[in-house]
């Protein structure tokens, strides 16, 4: 199998602008509830930590949506995209766990729903893409090994 070309990698890394906007909107909805919602935690300091995790998920989402044209090597662009998708998934896992630790507040249900919606909105798109990026990296590595 031949190594993927620059055009194939560019197509694989291209993200749909409408999807990216929906992902941003889902994060903004969740973040508004995290900051302004009535949330109660089981532990002292739990809600402020949850807000930090919500912000971290936004930073990870921003990185996942970022343009990678500044990275000159196609393999490095793929590695960066894959790493950011994995980091976003991990951040969303931590946020989901933190949301599950909430035990009250008028907005608890809406916040948990917003976290779940954010996870679906982002990972339903990025999960399969991450697998495709990994497969392209494997193909590129195999082609390099066969030289």
Notable traits:
5 helices; 147 residues; two-stranded antiparallel ribbon; 2 strands; mainly alpha
In sequence order, what are the helices and strands, one letter per element?
Answer: HHEHHEH
Task: Classify the secondary structure makeup into a structural class.
Answer: mainly alpha
Report the principal-axis shape: elongated
Distance between the termini: 12 Å
* Biggest pleated sheet: 2 strands, antiparallel
Note the total helix count: 5
Give unreliable regions as ranges: none
Averaged pLDDT: 92
Spatial strand sequence of the major β-sheet: 1-2
- Please report the total strand number as a whole number: 2
Helix percentage range? over 70%
Radius of gyration: 18 Å
Q: Give the oligomeric state.
A: single chain
- Beta fraction of the residues? under 5%
Mind explaining what this structure looks like?
The protein is mainly alpha-helical. Helix 1 (6-13) runs parallel beside helix 4 (74-100), helix 2 packs across helix 5 and helix 3 runs antiparallel to helix 4 (74-100). Helices cover 77% and strands 3% of the residues. The longest helix is centred in the C-terminal third of the chain and has 38 residues, at 108-145. The protein is elongated and about 55 Å long. 29% of the residues are buried. The mean pLDDT is 92. The protein has a two-stranded antiparallel sheet with strand order 1-2. The chain contains 5 helices and 2 strands.
């Amino acid at each position: 199998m031949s190594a993927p070309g620059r055009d194939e990698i560019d197509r694989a890394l291209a993200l749909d602008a409408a999807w990216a906007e929906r992902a941003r909107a889902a994060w903004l909805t969740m973040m508004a509830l995290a900051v302004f919602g009535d949330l109660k935690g089981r532990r002292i300091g739990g809600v402020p930590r949850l807000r930090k995790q919500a912000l971290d998920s936004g930073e990870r989402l921003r990185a996942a949506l970022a343009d990678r044209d500044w990275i000159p090597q196609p393999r490095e662009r793929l590695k960066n995209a894959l790493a950011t998708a994995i980091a976003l998934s991990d951040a969303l896992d931590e946020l989901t766990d933190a949301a599950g630790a909430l035990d009250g507040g008028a907005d608890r249900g809406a916040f948990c729903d917003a976290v779940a919606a954010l996870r679906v909105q982002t990972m339903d798109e990025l999960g399969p893409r991450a697998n495709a990026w990994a497969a392209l990296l494997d193909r590129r590595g195999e082609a390099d090994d066969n030289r």
